[in-house]
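Sample intake sheet
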Amino acid sequence: MIEGLAITPPILGRIAIGKVVERNGTRLPEKDDEFTVTSLVQNRDGWVLHPLDEALHKASTEKKLRSIPVKLLFADPDLSLRAQYAAFNRTTGRPVCAGNGQTCKRSTAEGLTTQPCPTPQHCAFGESLGCKPYGRLNVQIEGQDDALATFIFRTTGYNSIRTLTARLRYFQALAGAALPCLPLMLKLRAKSTTQSHRSAVYFVDLIVRQGMTLEAALQQAQQDAQTRTALGWDQVALDRAAAAGLAHGAFEDSEEEAPAVIEEFYAAQGSETHATGMAARHAEVAPRASGHRLSLTDKLHAKAEALEAPASAVT
């Protein structure tokens, strides 16, 4: 495996709640109040829709696509949702700093260094580069044709990051190793705040599949997990491989994604719902959890080592 290159979950497409439009020669984000599922291909008009987008719209009972049936690929919530503070070079789109509020990995003239991370609002370096919370959620959409691939939802919205983090940890606490078999839905929700001037701000939530109770979903997940295990599916080994791959790179985003990063991450300020759910930089600040936290890379290295334990030791 190539050192310094993060091996990320295979991606089939993107889940967005907005798009980038061109106005007076400038490409700007335009918020939306529904999901859009795109492929990884762009043309002159923007991202090309994935075939699942049309299928989901047809299956929806609403005029707009505000819920998507999904499942998770991993049993570890930190593998499905990677959230951190991140700063990018505004010209090249290259990631230059990623931290968790305690420590960060920063690219400097002397190479990659580990430094304190005082959060964006207390960091002169982060202030100059527009450092923001940055979350990447990988999910599998019902009906996709690849059992080991995912769709990615990117966001810098505090509401989405905070809500998705809580949901994933709660579901993992209840379902344990059966979490990947739990039938779930991405749900688009709206709220108003004083900072949004009472207008609706959209964020993403994760709930049990529509029409099911939590108890019924848990029962189905346990049954499906037992079937998978009987067929030879090793969830512990899959999580271990994913953790080891992500730990190989200090930064997850590659130079290949630079143009999209510039458009999505440093686009003009707006609400939480623009090109891929990116929030306004000055949204409400989530309180930082107390206690020591490792950098993302160190955390993934530790997780990869922990997953070397016998299956009976992993919940």
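Comment: The radius of gyration is 19 Å. The mean pLDDT is 81.
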